Amino acid sequence: MSVTEVSNDITDAFPLRRGWQRDLIGVGIIIIAAIAGYFLFPNNLALLTRIIAILLLVLSLDLVTGYCGVATLGHAALFGAGAYAAGIAAVTFGMTEPLSMVAIGALAGAVAGLVSGVVILRGHGLAQLVLSIAVIHLFHEAANKASAYTGGSDGLSGIAPDPILGLFAFDLWGRTAYVFGILLLVIIFAVLRILVRSPFGMLCRGIRQDPVRVSAMGASVKASLIKMYVISGAVAGVGGAFNAVSTQVVGLDSLSFTNSAEALVMLVLGGTGSLYGAFVGTIVFVWFEDIVSAANPFHWLTIVGALLIAVVLFAPKGLYGTAVTLVERYGRGRK
Amino acid sequence: MSAIFQVDRLKKSFGGLDVTRDVSLSMEKGDRIALIGPNGAGKTTFVNLVTGHLRPNSGRVLMGGEDISRFNPMKRVRAGLVRSFQVTRVFAEMTPEEHVALAILQREGKSGRMAGSYHALPEVMRETRAILETLNLVALAGIPVSEIAYGQQRLLEIALAMALRPKVLLLDEPAAGVPHSDTYLIENALKQLPDDLAVLMIEHDMDLVFRFAKRVIVLAAGEIIFDGSPRDVTQDARVREAYLGSYAHASSAA
């Protein structure tokens, strides 16, 4: 008798379906927001497309920082590697098929993830952060020096992707690029939600909370983190490649420290360790930056800074994390 | 019967300070041993040396005859040598159910799976539930660990150790930090450990030690000064001296 009661207790406490439903709702919201964006800002699709590319970078950062607890200011290295790989494939090797460009970007991002993961994970805490800064500077300098392939500080231009599947050409208004980006985003988001929910995702969350305990369970902390870094690199690489495809140029700024730091700021703004926070943070940050820089071109950075201080002081879990806490508290209060 | 676990002349010094001097001991299946000693005797250092968290200056550690001295902590766990921690180490944001399920998945080599969920693995769910039931943690199965009482977190440490199905279990002060009135919970949990498991427990609570242990080892200043039955330990002159210093001899106390 008590056994059946117990089993009910557990399934009630952890309904399998509820998590899935939440993710389906999440995907639904992304699609609805994407459609709304398409019709509400038809002249601003370039900005929305840029948000998608950055979002992929921030999602990928959330995997290593939010889920594994690795502090890094060098994550743009993975994004830039994907962007340059896709761009060079198109310009130098004539591979202008957009899906293969994205695949090449994912591969290059994964390799960059492996390399920077191996370097960054040698250190802990502050040393780790410094190593990550060193990594991004090295990647930046490598791209700068290899100007025969990358165009150096002039950037890599002349990327002319073919129509997707031979059917959908990239148009002047950026509609094709936008729809392509949304599709990539939805697929990657769905895959990542499955990943973070999996046993491996749970292991990574454990590593963030107590690596000593994880190794006392007989699991390899280092190997798991490097695996996650490679996956994260593939995601960031897709973001970079998509950026190359949609803007048709790759600049050195995609491999910059600033890019890395901004991605981290967006993640913290939205909230780490949920993937949803990455969405909230990126959209709010880029959109806010866009509005404020148009309204007040002289002091916009000051205003962005003030926003960040306010969020970090009053909503330390980020906008999404704080909202979830409030909703949970409200829900408990009603019971 | 051959020893399942053997420590052979383990030595460790920090600078000029010898914290472990020639410590040797062996354990057999089903052993229940208490390792006691005054503060600073080197008990936790001993555990850290054995589990590979510290590197000894010399000496060997063997599991079932196999030399595991060169294994890192992770490989020692996989060989069946599991420890608990003096100060609870758990994942604050995860629930007891997730903790135990993760340990089982790890033991089964499934913790690297990148899709699916342990909810969908009936055998993992069944075992998780059984372990949580054994330790009376079912009611808390779905609550983040940061919100449950410390005593229950201590029970969860034992649950994790059970889930890993070790051959040898080292418990570093399982009752530390638990109010004396709740020690029986820990004691009951320890009774649930499998009979053929070899357990070495470090503990200061003597009531617990005498009820639990069939054999007591006393460590003082890095040396084993007593290894025998719980009945004899209180009578041993060196043990009394280690604990009480000169007060052990009533005549010199004045």
From TrEMBL, chain A:
GO function term, MF aspect, one: branched-chain amino acid transmembrane transporter activity
Record-given protein name: Branched-chain amino acid ABC transporter permease
UniProt keyword ATP-binding present: no
Pfam families: BPD_transp_2
CDD domains: TM_PBP1_LivM_like
Stretches that traverse the bilayer: 24-41, 47-64, 76-95, 101-121, 177-196, 264-288, 300-327
InterPro entries: ABC_transp_permease (IPR001851), LivM-like (IPR043428)
Record keywords: Cell membrane, Membrane, Transmembrane, Transmembrane helix
GO cellular component: plasma membrane
Protein's cellular compartments: Cell membrane
Topology versus the membrane: Multi-pass membrane protein
Lineage: Bacteria, Pseudomonadati, Pseudomonadota, Alphaproteobacteria, Hyphomicrobiales
Gene source species: Phyllobacterium sophorae
Automatic annotation (TrEMBL), chain B:
GO cellular component: plasma membrane
Alphabetized UniProt keyword annotations: ATP-binding, Nucleotide-binding, Transport
A GO molecular-function descriptor: ATP binding
Cited Pfam families: ABC_tran, BCA_ABC_TP_C
Protein name, entry field: Branched-chain amino acid ABC transporter ATP-binding protein
Residue stretches making up the ABC transporter domain: 5-246
InterPro entries documented for this protein: AAA+_ATPase (IPR003593), ABC_AA/LPS_Transport (IPR051120), ABC_transporter-like_ATP-bd (IPR003439), ABC_transporter-like_CS (IPR017871), BCA_ABC_TP_C (IPR032823), P-loop_NTPase (IPR027417)
Family that this chain belongs to: Belongs to the ABC transporter superfamily.
SUPFAM superfamilies per the UniProt record, alphabetical: P-loop containing nucleoside triphosphate hydrolases (SSF52540)
Domain of life assignment: Bacteria
Tagged with keyword Transport: yes
Record Gene3D superfamilies: P-loop containing nucleotide triphosphate hydrolases
Native source organism of the sequence: Phyllobacterium sophorae
